Amino acid sequence: MLREKSTAHGILRSGDRDISRGTEYVRDFFNTYGVKRYSVIADHTSVAEDLPDLRGFDLCGFFTFDINLVGTKLAGHEVQLIKSCGPVPSCDGWLILSTLRAATFALNHALMLTGNERQIVCRLYGGQTTSISTYMDFFSGETETLVQISNYFDRKYRTLFPLDLRYTIRECDGTVRVAGQRIIPPGGLTVVDSRELNLGQFEGYMRVMVEVENLQSRVQPFMHYWADYISEAGLCRNHQSGWDQWAANVVFSRAYMPVEPDLDLTLCFWNENDVESHPRVLLHFNRNGEEKAIERPAATIPARHMSYQNISELFRDVSLEGANSAFCLITTDTPIHRPNYYIHPKGTRQYINTSHETGSDAAHWAVPTDCYQADYLKMLERVDTDPWVIQFPMLDKSFGIDTYLGLLSSTFCKINDFTFIFRNAKGEVVFSKDETIDGRSPQFLNLQDYARRHGVRIESGLFGLAPAKGLKEVPRRAISIVGFKHKDHPYICTAPASGYEDPNLPFYIDKLNPMCHMYDYSPVQVTDRFGPCIVSEEYDTLYIVTNCSLWKHYDRECEYKIEIVDPKGKMYCVYRKIPPQSFDAFWLSELFSAEGIPSDSTCFTLWERSNDTLLISYHFLYRKRDHAMSADDTFGGVLMMEPLLFDRTAEGVFVPAGDTPVRNYIQVKR
Questions:
Q1: Residue 218: its pLDDT value, please?
Q2: Contacts of 448 (CB under 8 A, 6+ apart)
Q3: What does DSSP assign to residue 625?
Q4: What is the CB neighbour count within 10 angstroms for residue 637?
Q5: Is-contact 423 581, C-beta < 8 A?
Q6: Has residue 670 got a pLDDT over 70?
Q7: CATH architecture group of domain 520-639
Q8: Is residue 213 within 8 Å of 162, Cβ to Cβ?
Q9: What pTM was estimated for this model as a whole?
Q10: pLDDT, tens digit (0-9, with 9 covering 90-100), for 216-231
Q11: What is the mean pLDDT of the chain?
Q12: What residue segments make up the domains of the chain, in order of their start?
C-alpha cells in the first residue's frame, strides 16, 4: 500500500534548517520561466555554502528586509536593504536564500505593491511549503481560453498574504510556449487570457504551479479554479484537474455522444505516466428499443503527453440516426487523469459544451454495486427521507432559459424507475409522477415541455428526480447532467447534477460516512462556496442557489450571505433569502445595480455563505449578443476538516488506515 501523508504532522518552524534544492533545480526553474538576471533575498538564516552555482545568469545583488544585516557581506557581496513597500531592483527573478516564511510573504507583497509581479520567485528550500500542481486544457484560435484563479487560502488556511503563482502554456508534448507568474492578493483573483498570448491556432494545456508556506495548518496540495472557452459558436466552462490520476481500468462515464449530424465529440486525455496509455471507448446507444454497444481502441497516448481525439470520427461509420441515450464509456490500461469531453460543430474546434468525465462504476463494463439495501431504505421511509433527490432549477419566463434533464441511464445508475417531482417557487409539490428512464429515453428531456404536456402550471420552481418507492436496492449516488439552453441559442450547456449528498437533514443518518467529514454528513450543515463572475458590456453572470432537503418535512427558509470580491480582494456583502425546497436566481449586473456595488473590474469572485444550511449552486457565463451560456457548479471545499489518515491500494482504492471504522475520506470527484 501507498501511505498518504496525514495533514497533521509537524510543520517546520521558521528559521529551522532545511536541505537546499540544489543547483540543478534552480537552473531548471530559471530556464523554464525565462530568468536571466536575478536577485537574492537573504537574512540571518542564510548560509552561503547553500548558494547554487548560477554561472551564466547575471546576479543583480543580495537584498534583505532585516536592517541589522544591511552593509554586511554574504558570499563576497554587500547586502542591501529592500523594503516591503518598495522600491525593488530591476531583475527577472528572485532566489530566496532563507527558511523564514516571512521573507517570501514580504517579497510577494513588495512585488505586488510595485507592479513587479512578473519577477519570478524561486525558493531554495521547500521543507515548510506545500507544492501544488494542476492543469487546465488550453486553446487559442477558433476557441479562446479565459482562466480565473482566486486566492481563497485566506479563508481555508488563514494565509493572509499574497500568493505567488506560476504557469506555463504547453504543447501536447510538454513543450513550453509561454511561462509567467502572477501574485494574487488574499481574497483576490488573477486572469490568464489566451487572446493576450499570441499563440495562434493552439491546443494544449496550462500547467499551474503554486508553492505555499504552511502556517497554522499544512496546506493540502490542491487548488480549485475555472476556465471559460469562448468561440463564435458558443461558450463552455470547466474547472481544473490535477489532484491525482485515477487508477488503471477505472471506467469513466458522463460523455454523451451527440446524435445531431452537425455536432462532434472530442475527448482530451492527459497521460502523466512514463509509459504509453491505451484507451478503449465503448459507444452505447438505443435504436428502436434495441440496445447497441460497440467497443473500439482509441489512439495510443504517448508517455507524458496530452491527446485530443475526435471520438465521433472513431465511430463515423456507425449511424446514430434515430438513436436515443447515446453515450461513451472510457477506460485505460494505465492510471490517468479524468478525461474531459468537448462538444463542437463538425469540422471546427469551436467548443460549445464541456465537462470532466467521472470515474464511477458504469453498466456494460462494470455494474454498480454500491447500493442502499432494503432495510436501509425502510429506515429512511420511517423518517420521511429520500435516499437522494437530484434537483433541477426551472427559471421563470423572464430569463428565457429552459432546463433539461440530461442523460441518466444505467451508465450512472442501476435502476430505471424514478419519481418526477415538480415544486413551485414556494417549494410546494404541485405534481409528481412515476417514470421509467432507460435507453429509449431522450438524451435531453426539456422539463418545461414535460410540465406543459402534463398540464402542470408552474412559473418557476424545482424539478426533483428521486428513485421510485418499493425498489429492493438503490445506488448510493446517482450523477446526472443538468442542461440549460436559452430559447434564442441553438446549443445546450450542461453541469454535473448529483443527489448523493445528505442535504439539510436535522439528524445524522449515514453510518457509512464520518459525521463531520467536510461538514456534509452532520445534523447541522453549513456553506462556504464560490465561483467566478464576469460583468461587462459583452457578458453577464447568472447564479442559481438552491435550498433543498431530503427530509420531506423541511420548512426552513434560509438567509444567506453573498460576498462579491474584486481582483484586489475588496469585498461587498449582500444578504438574500431562499424559501425551503426552492432556489434563488439573479443576474450579477442587476445585483450590482440594486445594491450600488461598483463594477470597476470585469472579473469577480462570488461567495455564498450560510452558518446553518447546505446550499448547492450553479454559475453561468452569459454572452448578450447571441445568448450563449456556459455552466458549472460552485466549489465548496474551503471548509477545514480534521486531519485524516488513509491508505491507497495499488488499484487506487482509498481505505481507512488501521481499524478506523469510517470510509469515504475524500469527496467523490464530480
A1: 83
A2: 394, 402, 403
A3: T
A4: 16
A5: yes
A6: no
A7: Sandwich (2.60)
A8: no
A9: 0.92
A10: 778 888 899 999 999 9
A11: 88
A12: 17-123, 368-500, 520-639
